[in-house]
User: Fold this.
Amino acid sequence: MLAQLDATPVETPEIVWAGLLPLLILSAGALLLVMLRSVVKRLPADVEPHLITAIGPITVLGMWFAAGLAGTDVPLAGLRDDMGEPAFYIGLALVMVLAGTLVRTMEIGLDAAITVGLGLSAFAATWGIWDDRWQVTGPFNAIGDQFAVDGFALLFAGVLAASVVLVALLLDGYLRRESLDGPEMYVLMLLSAAGGIVMTGANDLIVIFLGIETLSIAVYVMAAMHNRRTESQEAGLKYFVLGAFASAFLLYGIAFTYGATGSTNLVDIQIFLSSGQLVDNGLLMAAFGLLLVGFGFKIAAAPFHAWTPDVYQGAPTPVVAFMASAVKAAGFAALLRVFMLGFFSHVDDWRPAIGALAVLTLIVGSVMAIVQSDVKRMLAYSSISHAGFILVGVHAASLAGINSVAFYAVAYTFLVIGSFGVLTVVSGVGDRATSLDDLNGMAKRRPVLAFMFTVFLLAQAGVPLTAGFVAKFEVINAAVDSEFYWLAIVAMLTAVVSAFLYLRIVLSMYLGTADGDAADLGDPIPKAAGLAIGIAFAVTVGFGILPGPLSDLASDALPALIGAG
Amino acid sequence: MLGQYLPLLALLLLAAAFAAGSFIASGLLAPRNPSLAKRAAYECGIVPSRETPERFPVRFFLVAMIFIVFDIEIIFFYPYAVAFGGLGVFGLVLIMVFTFAVFESFVYLIGNGALEWGPLKQVARPSGAVSPDRTVETTIRRVGLEDRGIPADDGQAA
Assistant:
């Protein structure tokens, strides 16, 4: 019997390693980081600062190599030819020196520096694939017919890498303030982002499930990471129990899909469904419903949002920034992939369900936010209402809809990391000062930070000249294009309602007067966190005033299904 | 076709018969003369008023975690070993990657002292209130600030 098994070689899938580079950088980097920090527990005090400084130039080299490996040519080859080789390489060396200086002035820890380096390298690899491979050859499959590399997946992989970088910068100061230093949080975040990248490109429901679990399990632990705060433990447990519940729904949905279509592969599902051979429509309907419940939990759409306020309130604030940006973006990428690509031929069947979810999510998110008194809770509900907006884009089920979802995901990532970044800094030791009263008079204590927070909040409300406005505009535009006026009207009305909530926070910052024992005494902001908030601010305002580049990027980023062979 | 499982069934029945037989035999044959002292939980000392809490070092938990690490590795090794020939180099590389990733958690556990069973290392700075020195008269550590030349405030803060 064994001899028989030996004789039949198993077909191994064809792998394009370059297409997997962002994923490999994040996951292998996480493993190496945990290895390094387990073997070398404490570095000598005179070596560590130099090592951290060295991470800067190494990161530049890493980005250079990652982009080169991912593409087919030397990165920035055009620029090199323009400048001439010697000048170009001197310029590269200069950038390396600058990076070292920047790292030194940031006073960042070793783990955070390595994580930022890995995130930037993954980002560079994504850019390399986008610029040098995808735009040349079009979308391609990286592992057999299981994992696709297309513009949509690349854009979301870039978003994930960017959120890793920004959240690592926030985490550095936070973990030191809470005396939680250690590589664990960073390692978990890197692994989680790697899972997210798997989700964005997955061509098979089973692979999507693998990605979702890798993404979620790490975040469950991250939510409970503040081991001296019971709220954090509670958040972790709640998120874990409800997340496991959602995974069960998703898996059930996958099983029903398999039952109805005979495959878990999106390409096969699409071919089967569009050929009109479907026998049992009820089975497929059950699959749609169960899959939507599963994804609905991950993206916090009402009525599956119940965990969100508690978890966002209890979890460490930088972790919430990661949850609201990366986890949500990956969830939407997978949702869009499954429904727009796999199930597109049955769009009339699933569209009403998404529409109902969108309306409910918009209303719950904006109305419930008003009665909250805790800023973290408010932002949790506001993130629910943002999920509603993105669902409006999904509901449009058109090219414009996909583009608007991509744009919204990018803009929202920076917005929400900026907002929670400000909260991280001002909430004081133990994340205690997060109630609305604690923000009273913040404009006097920290004028710059208060101004930035105001801009982030106004952007979330959708005020013009911010990326939030363009994002909301495109989503509603997509709904109008597909002639769903009622949904567009609901979206606009709830935007007005939720504007009240953001203005409430702004008012308390500018008009309220601080009582004597305010926890936030205006301690100096950690430089790294300041940098992260600054980047988020620049992106929010930059893409608000000049949305063109991001708009073009989003409209290039289309998902594609490529069959095997 | 199911015939090949017959020995298994026979073994199962034999095992059940042996276990049941042992119980029945000991019930029938064992002599019985109970007394109060024999029934007591402890033969000497104070009669316990409640169950003692079961405390055990958290390190046992870590040992269990290490077991799970290797358990998972083995679970994947078995099917791999069966299909080893067919999978070729591709399978070998994949299982190596998998092994490395799982082994990593073992390295992490060891690095964080999961297998250090000796006395706890002194992490905190020794406070002024407790002297590690033993005196001539006793081996018990001296506690307190008398005759140490340390101001009392310092001890309270520590």
About this structure: The mean pLDDT of chain A is 90. Chain A touches chain B through 15 residues (CB under 8 Å).
